[in-house]
Amino acid sequence: MSKLEAFLAGERHDDVALFLTELYLDSQHKLPKMGETVENGYVLVVPGDDGRRAFSAGTGMDAMEFARGAMERRGHISRSLDGGECPAREEGDAGGEADADGTDAHEVEFIFAFSEAQNEEVGGLYERGDVVHAYAHCACGASYSDKWVVGAEGETGVQPGESEPAEAE
Q1: Whose CA is closest to 119, among 47, 16, 13, 17?
Q2: Cβ contact 148:132 at 8 Å
Q3: DSSP state of 68
Q4: How far apart are CA 26 and CA 6, in angstroms?
Q5: Residues 6 or more apart whose Cβ sits within 8 Å of residue 53
Q6: What is the DSSP string of 6-17?
Q7: pLDDT tens digits for 78-116?
Q8: How far apart are CA 128 and CA 43, in angstroms?
Q9: 0.90 exceeded by the pTM?
Q10: Is 69 left (phi over 0), alpha (psi -120 to 50) or beta?
Q11: CA dihedral over 52, 59, 28, 90, signed as positive or negative
């Protein structure tokens, strides 16, 4: 099982996952391509403190400040942490459908994610199982968040094509 598969299965709570598109990574020249190659870029799964430092080095932003800001807007983030659906596209915000070079104006540039172990005392999603928290930044400049229960990804969090989280009991 790869580090990414273990992270998505809720087995690496002390780690963080970082997704960067190949285009964003190449334009920043700050993080080596040492992660797992996925269709749209690279995902690194690294220990928490190292991951927050790598996120800062790769994006120029503090990871937790980015996450706090992204929590203000909900949107679907791919359960494989390699893309998402920018809510600004639906809202008609932040630019057109494609940039001059043909790149989607609402393509995810990077994602920061971590997980929390099941905690029945907290209730809600945390009572149901391990929870993945994911925060995405779009090429249009919008940031957004999603969270879901491991093993119930199709029942919790923002689903594809939706803007509100489905958190069925």
Answers
A1: 13
A2: yes
A3: H
A4: 27
A5: none
A6: HHHTT--TTEEE
A7: 999 999 999 997 765 544 455 444 456 889 999 999 999
A8: 26
A9: no
A10: alpha
A11: positive
